[in-house]
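Hi Y.,

Following your request, here is the sequence exactly as I used it, all 263 residues.
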Amino acid sequence: MTYRHTVLITGAGTGIGKELAIQAAEMGFKVIIAGRSEATLVETVSACEGDLARYVVADVTTAKGRGAICSAVGNSVHFLINNAGTLNVGHLRDLDDTALETMVATNLVAPMALTRDLLPALQRTKGRIVNVGSVFGDIAYPFFAGYSATKFGLRGFSDAIRRELSGTGVDVTYVAPRATRTAAESAFGALVEPLDMTLDSAEAVASQAWDAILAGKRESFPKGKERIFVKVQRLLPTLIDKSVGAQARHPKTLAALKASAKV
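Below is the corresponding structure, written out as tokens. Let me know if you'd prefer a different format.
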């Protein structure tokens, strides 16, 4: 009987999560995907090679949902990929409590709680926690304040839990993609040009993520200018303040944001 590693991926019905699942199946891993929409999960499983993928319909922001995920996983998992996320874009003054609370619950609390719940299964295999963050978790962008805050938090959690688990055999990879062509792009599409964003395909992001995961890397950032900006941000944040602040004040940006809010 062939021994196969098991991969759990949250938010795998669409976008990056879907591509992570497809590529995991191609590598021969047993794949368990979780999400709230059965229809999209079925599509992902159908796109995976062979019969190694299965799904569980679950809301990872709830204790009941996490319980269902843990039951599906059983007593061992080799890779936990916390990918589920949500995004709201706009002036902070326009974001209501629900928008802010949903981002915090999905992007930050859920991965912390699911990691906690699956620690025994991860420790049994000396597995790896993979947190899918964002370049915005280093470079805080205007009009993405709530989203950036949650991704900063996820990056901090990744560092903290990596150190907490040192010596146990469980390690952590933090993956920070830049803007990606997914369904979420509709929320910020008008800002791509004025904020000079570079968009990657979900397939490319997933491929780079798997390269980092399998190599046991601590973190993974996209190739290109964003990687340089992250280094500058960490060393000389005032330079990024000036550059990105100017973009935020530009009439073209404000016009695009206004038009986007009307959609």
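The first helix runs from residue 15 to 26.

Thanks again,
Q.
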